[in-house]
Design a protein that fits this description.
This protein is of the alpha/beta class and 264 residues long. Helix content is 40%, strand content 16%. The model has no long low-confidence stretch (mean pLDDT 96). It binds nicotinamide-adenine-dinucleotide. The site of nicotinamide-adenine-dinucleotide (NAD) has 25 residues, from α1, β5 and α6.
Length: 264
């Protein structure tokens, strides 16, 4: 579905962190945000992704396209310094980043190593806090920060394992950030998407079965799409949601509402 022309984000400048290709959830959010009038800075994990990201930045008319490995504080500081030099300030941040060892996203959670636990928590949860902290001096009154999460944070989903633990930490971080930054009129929310076939998701053991189960049982009886998530993101990034912070908002066709026996 393409949204009608809108100016929801006109005059706003924002960081979109976590595009790896056109299937990325962040790509669709960036596309919709640009169509709604936002000026964008795309950030991507490693220099070797540059040949893929530069054409995307051009397509979206992004004014900045920078590398930012969020496991590295110096890289985050450098990104914010570059953004400050170019723009001075920021109205929104989309954090759509997660990582865990593939072999720890299958079998049981006892497959998790100490190192794998730290890595997943660092990249998938702490990084939201680190990015927010570094961006604070640049955030405008009314700024909106969003991150991406999944139901595996509070329900046991086979194979999701350490990523579920990291998403629980991410959701809790969202609430604490919302409480701290609310008095500055900065909002912080998490969007919990249903399973979508992206590069990161394909690393989860049995992902195709997750998709099939979702399509069969979710109240809307269809898969969640990147467009579904981007539509909700526009609401959270724009003043339409000016009274909403600290929320975990589900965009999963109602799947999170089901009990152990799906409703007929
Ligand atoms: P994706 O693979 O397109 O995006 C994940 C991004 O994380 C990639 O761009 C990758 O480069 C980036 N990343 C990993 N390590 C990084 C690092 N150290 N520094 C900077 N960037 C790093 O997959 P996606 O599904 O679009 O994932 C985006 C977010 O959505 C993730 O947080 C994911 O957990 C979440 N999510 C995805 C689904 C799904 O089913 N696809 C469902 C719910 C939530």
């Amino acid at each position: 579905m393409s949204l009608p022309q809108n100016t929801l984000l006109s005059g706003k400048r924002g960081l979109i962190m976590g595009i790896t290709n056109e299937r990325s959830i962040a790509y669709e959010i960036a596309k919709q945000a640009a169509a709604a009038g936002a000026e964008l800075c795309l950030t991507y994990a490693h220099e070797k992704l540059a040949p893929r990201l530069e054409p995307i930045a051009k397509e979206l008319s992004a004014s900045l396209c920078l590398t930012c490995d969020v496991s590295d504080d110096a890289a985050i500081e450098k990104t914010m310094a570059d953004v400050k030099a170019a723009w001075g300030n920021i109205d929104f941040i989309v954090h759509a980043i997660a990582f865990a060892h593939k072999d720890e996203l299958r079998g049981g959670i006892t497959n998790t190593t100490r190192e794998g636990f730290h890595l997943a928590m660092d990249v998938s949860a702490y990084s939201f806090l680190a990015v927010t902290k570094a961006a604070l001096p640049l955030l405008n009154d009314g700024a909106s920060l969003i991150t991406l999460t999944y139901l595996g944070s509070n329900k046991v989903v086979p194979n999701y394992n350490i990523m579920g633990v990291a998403k629980a930490a991410l959701e809790s971080t969202t609430r604490y950030l919302a409480a701290e930054l609310g008095p500055r009129n900065i909002r912080v929310n998490a969007l919990s998407a249903g399973p979508i076939n992206t590069l990161a998701a394909r690393g989860i053991g049995g992902f195709n079965e997750m998709l099939a189960h979702h399509e069969r049982t979710a109240p809307l009886r269809r898969l969640t799409t990147q467009e579904d998530v981007a539509g909700a993101a526009l609401y959270f990034l724009s003043p339409l949601s000016q009274g909403v912070t600290g929320e975990v908002h589900y965009i999963d066709g109602g799947a999170n509402t089901l009990g152990p026996t799906p409703a007929l």
